[in-house]
Amino acid sequence: MEIAAVETNGASSQSDRYAADPAQGGVRSVKRALSLVNAIAEAGGEAALTDLSARTSLPVSTCHHLLKTLIECGYAAQVPGRKLYVLGTRFIQLSHACVNSDLPRRAQPFLEAISEATGETVHLAALQGSAIATVALREARHAIRVDAGGVGKLEAPHATSIGKAILAWLPENEIRRVLAAGMTRFTEHTMTALPELIEALRQVRREGVAFDREEFIPGVICIGAPIRDQAGAVIGAISASMPKMRATDEHMAMTRAEILSATRALSEDYGAAPEAGSEQTTKTTIPN
Fold first, then answer.
1. Domains of the chain and CATH, by start
2. What is the mean pLDDT of residues 247-269?
3. What is the pTM (predicted TM-score) of this model?
């Protein structure tokens, strides 16, 4: 990646462009590029060229050259029709990669606690590019249990509570990308038309939880809820699956409370603001 450095007496040499900072070590041009990335983030996600110059103490011409390279590599973008710069989509991809490796570790005690409290099969899913994948699960503790799929790409996000818990908070163009392979019918209850699903996802947003009422597997009921990050974006979800014979109102209410408690706690762990009224939800007890 070729990044222009600050001009010295009106010009910059090839050696200066990649010169190490003798005082602190490292490559000076890389530090300057990263300082622009940090400045955009600290400005609230978008900033003008002159603002970035002031924030980083770099000449406007240097900021312009660095931003041009950051844009070429996907780490920055210019707002169409406006003289503003924003962070690029490459950071979304990197964020998903970090979450995919970190989320199972952070979520493990919560998955164990939900499993202990409900006895049901518990799934953890995350966004992986344009796909949703199950990244961890805990099998049911009951002798009679459901097989709602293992770890790996989720083939039916439109028909599962964990898939709908993530889809509900994605832009419609992203929903279409996730469902590019189509909406397969699995049972008589499966939604196979996108407008019907979009309307159902609005209900998920209103309630904060998603349900799968025999939409993927006959006789299986599932409850799922999303996990959010500091920006409020959905990064994953947790669900519990149970046979219809155990899906009493009392058991469903308890399972819903356990899942919401866990997903809210995980969301706050990732920097999301606490939800109004969340302190009234039954707290998930994390096992020692």
1. 14-88 (1.10.10.10), 92-280 (3.30.450.40)
2. 95
3. 0.65
